[in-house]
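Input/output pair, single chain:
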Amino acid sequence: MKIKVLLVEDDDKKAREIEDVVAGQGHSLERASDLVEAKRLLTRESYDAALLDIQIPIRTGETPDVGGGGRLIREIENNSTLRRPKYLVGISQYDDADERCGKALSESAFGFIHYDHSSSVWKETLEKFLQHVEKGVVPQDAESRTDLVIICALYEPELKAILELPCSWHELEESNDSIVYFEGVLKSKSGERHVVAAACMEPGMSAAAALTATTIARFRPRYVAMTGITGGMRDSCNLGDVVMAEAVWDYTNGKHAVLDGKPAFRPAPRVIDIDPVVISQIQRLCRGEGVMKSIADSFRPKRPEQVPALRVGPMFTGTAVVADSDVAQGLEAIHRKVIGVEMEGYGVACAVKYLGHGRPEVFILKGVSDFADERKDDDWHDYASFTSAQVLYQWALRFL
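Output:
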């Protein structure tokens, strides 16, 4: 789908290079050379994305202002007469671009693309960004499309934590299958967003894949997220930490064979990578001052002493609960950086992977409720479900 892009850039050569990339992806672009012109365009036009140089002049003919881009970002955030593009990204040759614009990129924008006229890496990054924006734009003839579908393994405690979010949830009474759907409205920075949540009828990859596929077919979401609980690797995370999968692994795929006269399993894991754009958004959100502490403090029952942290890494999905340190060590032998092991994530991602054009972005956020060893217990299921739901909610408020 063709998208509209605003470029705010005073350097003609750099602007032409950026225009070539945008046009090469089949999208339209308008350019402003200074802050005043950019504001004029944003007053009368709506854009799907804005690419902002950090050092721009306030008016035509003036010397570029080192903080001009940051000033424009804050104007977009605070001036109701300006139409905020859904995605804002900085594009600059300066490595310290965020500091130059007063942290505006980390606070309000998608992020930062490092421009280097001697390299093509920035062009590849920009192309990926445009592809992400294109997937997130709802066609005018598809107003009924859902913004976010949330999949949970079970109703309690995972879906229960989602239904406690302030989204005016109500149960959908009409359904042609056994799935119980809950529909809500979330008020994000960009306006009201349509959200649907559901829980599997049973735990496991197969049930998660079936629910995800059915829900996508009915609601046509832009994003699919899974929240809930996961077992953590004891030396890699703490109770209550939120694990975000950078990739989900079906570690149970492989071959049972006989080696040296003994039965052995030879793993051949399947892997699905998660979109790095969403990972970057979640990371920047959780790095915000006091964000994770605020989430922990809002949980009223007893909780662990440590402030939860976001952990990004490989998440393993299998067909059985792991409560054996020897098994956990075996998983680390497959990938030394594995941080979470659970039973549904790969199924959710797999259901999305094989859809055609317009498939949603998918990501997995799960709270660490225990460790994958003999000391596994149920004490922190509610807390882990809560922290993962809250991180998803904070992401949706800002980026959905």
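DSSP finds 13 helices and 18 strands in the chain. The first helix runs from residue 12 to 24.
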